Amino acid sequence: MITASYAMRRSEGGTPSFVRNRNMTKAVGVKLGPVSHTVVVAILVLIVGLIYVNVGVKATSYDYELDKLNGDIAVLAAEKDSLDIENARLAAAAADSDRNEVAVNMVDVAVSDIISE
């Protein structure tokens, strides 16, 4: 129960009386000036530009990785070709080994547990 003096105090003084479920202050909308608006737009353009550059850098780094892998493939293909030539040379030498005097006189290497100097 509200006493008479309390109710009188609330309604005095030229300010509006308190009402339940009503805010005492009004929310004032914030408005941007021309300089603030320009700064916000510039920041948004900068963020979009940074995202664009980041995507471009990622694509370029993938290109460098692909170039490196293509170089490795070329080196390995050249090594394979040289090994194919070496294999053909050794196969030809093995076919002639029974007619080759040096190859006929060779003996197999025996496995030894002791290494002598």
Describe this structure in a few short sentences.
The chain is mainly α and 117 residues long.
Structure description:
The protein has three helices and no strands. With 117 residues, it is mainly α. The protein has a domain at 55-95. The termini are far apart. The relative contact order is 0.03. The model has no long low-confidence stretch (mean pLDDT 76).
Averaged pLDDT = 76
Sheet with most strands: none
**Helical residue percent?**
55-70%
C-alpha Rg (nearest Å): 46 Å
Q: What is the H/E string?
A: HHH
User: If helices are DSSP runs of H or I spanning 4 or more residues, what is the number of helices?
Assistant: 3
Structural class: mainly alpha
Shape descriptor reads: rod-shaped
